[in-house]
């Protein structure tokens, strides 16, 4: 592998095979076996949901590739250029054709959705063409900022993937004012450490 800066991994999720490029120095899920379980859980909670999907912090398309077939269209956001490039490669590897990526941070995208700012990076994306019923967020350990908390509350269904149960708890204190927790799961993504990955599925009250 020394002639390239990535490897291609294969995951099996609910009986279907997916391939992912994993680029050096870019974020990827470190535990393939647990990642398969996490992707399977997310796929199950999204089964039967209608409309389009909005995904914040999509990374290399880890969740996007699996969940895209549950929705008409997917609009994903990611700030890292390397991750966006890797995501496009992964969409091609897995024949995913209904996804657009906006290279924006969650804070910037929230400003765009609220019509507070215009972004050249969104000039080829018509936000009004999306009928989003479900949002998936997979934020860093700091969790969701206050504006993004308010954004996720605008949608009927929320899938929150968290790598920090403490900030997840803080965010849920506000989100559960409008939404009810339907399912919750804990994934031991980082064995022999105190770190935990969690998934929460919420629907509007």
Tell me about this structure.
By secondary structure, the protein is an alpha/beta fold. It is 29% helix and 28% strand. It is built from six helices and nine strands; from the N terminus they run ββαβαβαβαβαβαββ. It has a seven-stranded mixed beta sheet, sandwiched between helices. Strands 1-2 form a two-stranded antiparallel ribbon.
This entry's quaternary arrangement is single chain
> Taking Cα atoms only, what radius of gyration do you get, to the nearest Å?
16 Å
Structural class: alpha/beta
Largest sheet: 7 strands, mixed
Strand content: 25-35%
Q: Looking at this structure, what is the CATH superfamily?
A: Vaccinia Virus protein VP39
Q: If you average the pLDDT, what whole number results?
A: 94
The dominant shape is globular
The CATH architecture comes to 3-Layer(aba) Sandwich
Spans of at least 5 consecutive residues with low confidence: none
As laid out across the biggest beta sheet, the strand order is: 5-4-3-6-7-9-8
CATH topology: Rossmann fold
Quick one: how many beta strands? Answer: 9
Distance separating the two termini: 50 Å
Level-1 CATH class name: Alpha Beta
Number of folding domains?
A: 1
The DSSP helix count reads 6
**H/E series, N to C?**
EEHEHEHEHEHEHEE
């Amino acid at each position: 592998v020394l002639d390239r800066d990535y490897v291609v991994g294969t995951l099996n999720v609910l009986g279907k095979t997916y391939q992912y490029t994993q680029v050096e120095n870019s974020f990827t899920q470190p535990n393939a076996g647990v990642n398969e379980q996490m992707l399977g859980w997310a796929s199950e909670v999204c089964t039967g949901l209608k409309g389009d999907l909005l995904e914040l912090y999509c990374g290399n398309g880890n969740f996007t590739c699996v969940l895209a077939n549950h929705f008409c269209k997917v609009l994903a956001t990611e700030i890292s250029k390397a991750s966006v490039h890797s995501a496009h490669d992964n969409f091609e590897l897995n024949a995913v054709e209904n996804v657009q990526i906006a290279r924006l941070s969650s804070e910037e995208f929230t400003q765009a959705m609220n019509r507070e700012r215009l972004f050249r990076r969104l000039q080829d994306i018509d936000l009004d063409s999306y009928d989003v019923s479900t949002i998936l967020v997979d934020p860093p350990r700091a969790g969701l900022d206050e504006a993004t908390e308010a954004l996720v509350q605008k949608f009927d269904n929320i899938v929150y993937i968290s790598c920090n149960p403490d900030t997840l708890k803080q965010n849920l204190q506000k989100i559960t004012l409008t939404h009810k927790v339907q399912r919750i799961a804990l994934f031991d993504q980082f064995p022999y450490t105190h770190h935990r990955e969690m998934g929460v599925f919420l629907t509007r009250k």
